[in-house]
Amino acid sequence: MQDNLIKQIKEKINTKEEISPFLFIWSNISNINLFINELSQRLSSELWSNKNFIFSFIDNNEKIKVKDIKEFLEKIFITPTYWSQIFIIENISRMTEESANSCLKIFEEPPIWNIILLSSPSESWVLETIISRCTIINMDKTIQDSKNEFYYGMIDDYVRWIDHDLASYVFKEKLEKQDYINILNTLIVYFKNNLVYLDLIENIIEDINWIQKNNVLPKYIVDKYIIRMKI
Fold first, then answer.
1. Neighbours of 80 (CB within 10 A)
2. What 3-state DSSP class applies to 111?
3. Which CATH class is domain 2-143?
4. Coil, helix or strand for 64?
5. Which of 114, 47, 105 lies closest to 86, judged by CA?
6. Cα separation, 140 vs 145, whole angstroms
7. pLDDT for the residue 144
8. Is 116 helix (H, G, I), strand (E, B) or coil?
9. Torsions phi, psi for 146 (to 5 deg)
10. Where are the extended beta strands (E) located within the chain?
11. What digits encode the pLDDT tens for the residues 142-177?
12. Domain residue limits, the chain
């Protein structure tokens, strides 16, 4: 997913198009904030920018006040010395109606050199006027759509100690890289649906990104989680 987003953003920057804010929805707000921060680091590198031009409004579990968000977004009107600058606002569901309304103009017509990354645990907690100005990426739906019924059944049997077909399958079959990624994505879906091994989800997401970006042997990564589920 990150690769496609980065490609899309780079194309818009090259053609000097406005980039609508990206609103990432995921019920696990901590994980989506980690995802966004990792994405911002990659974007900065890919765009030959500078990490000092990544600005973050960190979620502190309090309401986002209009004074604070206006002050944070003032830098958006300053032309950076690099190709772009990135603004991250974590958990915009904490915005008051006044603070959300104060962002509407910027979100509708962001200066072309700006990339705005937003997060929220639910779309329903964000004003419709904000939603309409953003590109929505629903990570809950994306992950659920990645569920593979064949792998899901084997994972369920393996976790519930019914059989070890999952381990045998991974060991014996000649799988492609995408097969291993599908297994890992399905692990995430299973863990979320059954509220088990939730502490592994963040690591699995990182490993999926690592597999996609590097020439590594994904079998060993899948083996790691198969073993971890039996410890």
1. 17
2. coil
3. alpha beta
4. strand
5. 114
6. 9
7. 61
8. strand
9. -85, -5
10. 22-25, 54-57, 85-89, 114-120, 135-138
11. 666 667 899 999 999 999 999 999 999 999 998 999
12. 2-143, 146-228
Token readout for 158 is 């393996």
pLDDT the model gives residue 213: 76
Q: Please give the Cα distance from 106 to 76 (Å, whole number).
A: 9
Give the chain's mean pLDDT: 89
Q: What is the pTM of this model?
A: 0.66
> Hey, is 154 helix, strand or coil?
helix
Helices (H) and strands (E) in the chain, counts: 12, 5
Answer yes or no: is pLDDT of 64 > 70.
yes
What is the Cα–Cα distance from 168 to 161, expressed in whole angstroms? 14
Nearest Cα to Cα of residue 89 among 78, 199, 9, 75: 75
Residue 158 CA to residue 170 CA, distance in Å, equals: 12
- Band of pLDDT at residue 231, cut at 50, 70 and 90: confident
The mean pLDDT value for 9-25 works out to 89
Helix axes 177-194, 201-213, angle to 10 degrees: 160
